[in-house]
Specification:
The structure holds 2 protein chains of 2 kinds.
Chain A (H helix, E strand, L loop, with lengths): L1 H49 L3 H9 L5 H15 L5 H12 L7 H13 L5 H48 L1
Helix pairs in contact in A: 1-2, 1-6, 2-3, 3-4, 4-5, 5-6
Chain B lengths: L3 H22 L3 H34 L3
Helix pairs in contact in B: 1-2
Classes of the chains: A mainly alpha, B mainly alpha.
Chain lengths: 173, 65
Amino acid sequence: MFLKIASSVAIVVCCTLLGMHMSFRYKQRIYNIRVLQSILANLETEIVYYSTFLTQAIRNSIRTLNGDWKIFFMEVADILENKQEYSLDDAWNKSLNKIQKNPYIGKAELDIMYRFGLQLGSSDRQNQQKYFEIVQEQLKIEEENARQLHLRYGKMYRSLGLLLGLGIAIILF
Amino acid sequence: MNIDIIFKIAAIGILVAVVNHVLIRAGRDEIAMLTTLTGVVIVLLMVVNLINDLFNSVRSIFRLY
């Protein structure tokens, strides 16, 4: 009897944690988009006003921030500095491929960043500034989308986890 | 007669109702429908033996061989 109760509790706890993890993904995605926005704002300042070299500009703009996009930008800077790839495009795409499977980053942001990578460093200052503005706008829309998804499905996954655990425990009891 | 199965079925019924409600609130009506069906199937699987027993008893009581 004791074993039965203990295993049922274990099932319920595991399913609840799973549900919380699923709901955490939505929350973390919003956080990541916000961090990405600040990184890009910093990068814009570095490029448009300070005219720093790109690797140094990237390192300066991610210094105080956290999150999954920081890893991406560090990767880009590392690849360019170590001369594993010589063009920004290649370094950018290589790093994007690496974080593609990250569950806390949405496909839409990846797409936006992919297109942004094609344009980064390909024109003069005014144009670059324009691209930065476009990307910021797109990211704002994505943030709003992510927030709505979080409101809609975050709660659902949390309660579904608990209920599914209870269901399995009752059926097996 | 084992009374536990009645409580079990009642618990599954309540759970399915709550899951259904949560899913409909989240706007996933088709998955809510699927959950309800799953609940019905699980309960049917649980009671199919008992129904068999019932029919056998009826047959033997009224001598319908």
